[in-house]
């Protein structure tokens, strides 16, 4: 294949670069974590049972525990699976863009490992507690990292 004048790599020499290899190892590690949670979530199942409606508002507020997480472990595991799935697909798209465009190597490797670590932390956190504002913040962080990887792939490659 022809050498990319922006990066100095052909696709073949680019994928043989050690930083690119480490980038794809980070992706595969995240993919493996996603597969593990995908498998385990079927063991616990999703809790779809709801309590009978309360007859009065006072009765309803007395029954709801203040600090208890919503849903059983199965439904929280489904949330963790969703986080892993969405982040794995987001990461895959920008890594393919970077690899075929023979873009950045070391910077993308560092960003990918940061992305993986943050994804693992968020997935574990989702199993314990979920909140819309927290989801918004980490979604913004993931989107920013993928934009940075995509930007590097166009700046250094293509």
From TrEMBL:
Keywords: Membrane, Transmembrane, Transmembrane helix
Name of the protein this chain belongs to: MAPEG family protein
Transmembrane segments: 20-40, 107-124, 136-155
Top-rank taxon: Eukaryota
């Amino acid at each position: 294949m022809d050498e990319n004048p922006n990066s100095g790599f052909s696709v073949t020499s680019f994928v043989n670069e050690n930083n690119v290899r480490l980038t794809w190892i980070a992706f595969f590690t995240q993919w493996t974590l996603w597969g593990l949670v995908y498998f385990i979530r079927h063991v616990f199942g999703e809790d779809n049972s709801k309590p009978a409606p309360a007859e009065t508002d006072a009765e309803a507020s007395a029954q709801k525990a203040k600090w208890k997480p919503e849903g059983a472990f199965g439904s929280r595991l489904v949330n963790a699976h969703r986080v892993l799935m969405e982040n794995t697909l987001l990461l895959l798209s920008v890594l393919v863009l970077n690899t075929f465009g023979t873009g950045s190597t070391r910077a993308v490797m560092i960003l990918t490992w940061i992305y993986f670590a943050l994804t693992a932390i968020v997935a574990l956190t989702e199993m314990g507690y979920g909140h819309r504002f927290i989801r918004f913040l980490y979604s913004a962080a993931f989107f920013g990292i993928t934009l940075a990887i995509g930007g590097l792939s166009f700046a250094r490659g293509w």
